[in-house]
Specification:
Elements lengths: L2 H29 L15 E2 L5 E2 L9 E5 L5 H7 L5 H11 L3 E6 L11 H11 L5 E4 L4 H5 L4 E2 L2 E4 L5 E5 L18 H10 L14 E2 L3
Parallel strand pairs: 3-4, 4-5
Antiparallel strand pairs: 1-2, 3-7, 6-9, 7-8
Length: 215
């Protein structure tokens, strides 16, 4: 083999490696890209719930879905579950009464703040009168990362065709004060109202606020 041929083979191998690395980087970027409103929400399959069921997003085709990232020890989560206001519980009850599927997601890793095993997660919801349709246990953080969930709470509203209608903060006042709830614009309520009417929400995306998700 001539030195010219060896050089060309080496260049070809290097280019192939570079292409493979670039493709891998694109795949990784695509898998972790921030979900975009107006486009398909990230799918998930066989997610384990606190009741031991497994669910997939496709199970709810034709139904509006709300996804709520939660951490019961986070002050911002406590704000929205605080009694007697019970803001989150009221949202859950009103939404599910209208046929919406409400999925609570716990993405805290074992040993991190907010981590709960199945029995404890169910007990916590009973204690605070929460009424999600399902509570997904996501200790690996796979679903949280797929949705780029950043805070607790971080809220998502998904239309029946799988399109993401809203993602971001629960409301317009970024605080842990219960007294601010009544003064804020609730983006989740507004999004659900718009989706029910077949319209696009006025606000489709906002910066979430709260505690960082404890991946």
């Amino acid at each position: 083999m001539t030195s010219f041929t060896r050089r060309n083979l080496g260049l070809a191998a290097g280019m192939a490696t570079a292409v493979a690395l670039t493709a891998g980087a694109m795949i990784a970027f695509s898998a972790n890209a921030t979900p975009i409103t107006g486009e398909a929400a990230p799918g998930f399959t066989n997610a384990v719930t606190a009741t031991g069921d497994t669910i997939s997003l496709s199970d709810f085709a034709g139904q509006t879905v709300v996804m709520e990232w939660t951490n019961h020890d986070c002050p911002f989560v406590k704000k929205h579950y605080a009694e007697p206001v019970t803001n989150m519980q009221t949202l859950q009850s009103e939404a599910t009464a209208g046929g919406t599927v409400w999925i609570q997601v716990i993405s805290s890793a074992p040993g991190k703040q907010g981590y709960l095993e199945a029995e404890a997660a169910l007990a916590k919801n009973t204690e605070r009168g929460a009424a999600p349709t399902y509570t997904i246990l996501d200790p690996s953080g796979d679903i949280g990362r797929a949705y780029d969930a950043k805070t607790t709470p971080h809220m998502y509203v998904i239309e029946g065709d799988g399109e993401l209608a809203y993602e971001g903060a629960i409301d317009s006042i970024r605080s842990a004060r219960v007294s601010d709830i009544g003064k804020a614009t609730n983006y989740v309520t507004a999004a659900l109202t718009a989706v029910t009417a077949g319209a696009t929400p006025d606000v489709t995306s906002s910066k979430p606020y709260g505690c960082s998700v404890k991946y």
